[in-house]
Fold this sequence. Notes:
Blueprint: E1 4-8, H1 14-26, E2 31-35, H2 41-45, E3 49-53, H3 64-75, E4 82-88, H4 100-111, E5 115-117, E6 120-121, E7 133-134, E8 137-138, E9 141-143, H5 152-167
Parallel strand pairs: 1-2, 1-3, 3-4, 4-5, 4-9
Antiparallel strand pairs: 6-8, 7-8
Helix pairs in contact: 1-5
Flavin mononucleotide (FMN) binds next to helix 1.
Amino acid sequence: MNKTGIFYSFNTSNSSKVALKIQEVFGKDKIDVIDAEQVTEEQFLKYDNLILSVPTWFDGEMPTYWDEFKPALEDMDLKGKTVAIFGLGDQKSYPENFGDAIGIMAKLVENASAKLVGHSSTEGYTFERSRGVRDGNFVGLMIDVENQNDLTDDRIKNWVSSIKKDFAL
Ligand SMILES: Cc1cc2nc3c(=O)[nH]c(=O)nc-3n(C[C@H](O)[C@H](O)[C@H](O)COP(=O)(O)O)c2cc1C
């Protein structure tokens, strides 16, 4: 069976909650959890399927822990791997940078030759601009706990069922 890992910062409150919900919906025994703040190249390469948690910070940037891993990612060959990205963002407070970080990470993993899956509709969100949008869809799953937390569980369920097929689980 393909090995799947979910990478998120164990120090976050919002992203951690979403990551653990995603793991639960997949089935706890099917996915390993890895702390993105301690991640090594070796751990990254161990998995066939990777789910990356990339919240947006600093007005349209990735958090520091992913920025620090960026040089390693730029040198990696992820050919044959399937990657899905989810990100947290606040569409009301940051309408011009909503979820930018998922777009930054998407480019990094695609440049490393990974197959990116898990695009999702922008319907139901209100914002001005996002680097996380390509051809009218988000390049991953966007979760906004500040403004739309009531939609979080359904968004996760729908997203997980769409990427399960791509992950061959
Ligand atoms: C200083 C700061 C900057 C932020 N910048 C953005 C941003 O540019 N775009 C966005 O969509 N959300 C932004 N956010 C909102 C966060 O992404 C959101 O609060 C998220 O839930 C944080 O998740 P985490 O605590 O798991 O890292 C920002 C939040 C803070 C506190």
